[in-house]
């Protein structure tokens, strides 16, 4: 999810340094990589461009460097295969771990241009608010933002002002 690098033709040494090893055909590896990443039965979305894949010389060998960018929230989850719940992984330290169903659902929910919390409900009236909750929220707001223009409103009017503010954002 955060992006990173994939190095092909490289081994990690005991001291955590890297050394290159010969690749038989870096061009074929890159071609096969592009065929796979553009195949929707292998991965659901390709977030890479040509500039993200390079063949470079290192230690007398040609290696392949793939820079994987951070996926935009609209593209998440990026997953292998056809099932996001079985093919979504996250990096944690040195390993990759399968995402939980809740993590996958959260990524899917966050794809929307407008979050569920920001969505304005056309048919909502102020009687849906719990006034005790509004009073507590209002007190917190007054403590955090003394002198705010809404601080002068009566508690019963406060949610209506907030509601109208949301309606104006449509």
Automatic annotation (TrEMBL):
This is Transcriptional regulator. Gene3D superfamilies: Schlafen, AAA domain. It comes from human gut metagenome.
């Amino acid at each position: 999810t955060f992006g990173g690098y994939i190095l092909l033709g490289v081994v990690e040494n005991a001291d955590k340094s890297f050394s290159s090893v010969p690749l038989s055909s870096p061009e074929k590896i890159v071609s096969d990589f592009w065929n796979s990443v553009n195949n929707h039965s292998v991965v659901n979305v390709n977030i890479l461009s040509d500039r993200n894949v390079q063949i470079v010389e290192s230690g007398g060998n040609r290696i392949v460097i793939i820079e994987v960018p951070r996926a935009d929230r609209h593209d998440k989850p990026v997953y292998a295969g056809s099932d996001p719940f079985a093919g979504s992984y996250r990096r944690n330290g040195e390993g990759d771990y399968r995402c939980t169903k809740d993590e996958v659902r959260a990524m899917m929910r966050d794809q929307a241009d407008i979050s569920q919390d920001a969505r304005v409900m056309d048919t909502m009236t102020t009687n849906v608010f719990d006034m005790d909750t509004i009073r507590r929220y209002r007190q917190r707001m007054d403590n955090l933002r003394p002198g705010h223009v809404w601080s002068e409103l009566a508690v019963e009017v406060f949610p209506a002002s907030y509601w109208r503010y949301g309606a104006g954002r449509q």
